[in-house]
């Protein structure tokens, strides 16, 4: 799967919608799994910058998408090793 670097919240609506469609889910189906109405999911997709981190992470999980954080400029790593300071 391709990685997407997100620098602003304005990028999230398009990505969330694309990931939902890639997962083969309608807004109604994704909303049902998230435990919200279709209207709430629609608003979430349009205004992702106002969504709680918990709700965003639950939606990403439903869509089969991982949130990966790494320092800018570091190469992508798939080894899953946490920074040595942890």
UniProtKB/TrEMBL annotation:
InterPro entries: Cro/C1-type_HTH, Lambda_DNA-bd_dom_sf. Residues 16-70 form the HTH cro/C1-type domain. SMART domains: HTH_XRE. Pfam families: HTH_3. One of its GO terms (molecular function) is DNA binding. This is XRE family transcriptional regulator. It comes from Advenella kashmirensis.
């Amino acid at each position: 799967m391709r990685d997407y670097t997100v620098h602003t919240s304005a990028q999230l609506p398009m990505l969330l919608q694309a990931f939902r469609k890639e997962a083969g889910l309608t807004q109604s189906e994704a909303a049902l799994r998230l435990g919200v109405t279709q209207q709430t999911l629609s608003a979430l997709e349009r205004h992702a910058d106002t969504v709680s981190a918990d709700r965003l992470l639950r939606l990403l999980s439903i869509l089969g998408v991982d949130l990966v954080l790494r320092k800018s400029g570091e190469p992508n790593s798939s080894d899953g090793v946490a920074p040595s300071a942890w």
